[in-house]
Amino acid sequence: MMVELGTSATLMDAQMGHADGSVQALYAHVTAAMVRRLVDGLTDLWLGALEARRRLCPASPVGVLDRLLRES
């Protein structure tokens, strides 16, 4: 998903806990704007998936999911 959202390699490595020993990684840093774009993109994907699930059936026997389906 992160690749589809255009997430930089630096941020993907940081999010997955990978260490990159390259020279490029030494000078590349994760910024607040990069993280915000990733969070916004993942949130949009989540909301889209929730809406698709709601169209299938607006209720769930799983309590947390049922509340989320009914909230929106």
Word description of this protein:
- This protein is an all-alpha fold.
- It has one domain.
- 65% of the residues lie in helices and 0% in strands.
- The protein has four helices and no strands.
- The chain is elongated and about 50 Å long.
- The whole-angstrom Rg is 17 Å
List the total number of helices.
4
Q: What is the structural class?
A: mainly alpha
Kindly report the oligomeric state of this protein: single chain
Task: Extract low-pLDDT stretches.
Answer: none
Major sheet description: none
Tally the beta strands. Answer: 0
Instruction: Report the average pLDDT across residues.
Output: 88
How far is it from the N-terminal to the C-terminal residue, by CA? 24 Å
Question: β content, as a range?
Answer: under 5%
Overall body shape:
elongated
SSE series: HHHH
Question: Helix and strand layout, with pairings?
Answer:
Blueprint: H1 9-16, H2 23-27, H3 32-56, H4 63-71
Keywords:
elongated; 65% helix; 72 residues; mainly alpha; 4 helices
Task: Summarize the structure in short.
With 72 residues, the chain is an all-alpha fold. It has helices at residues 9-16, 23-27, 32-56, 63-71. It has one domain.
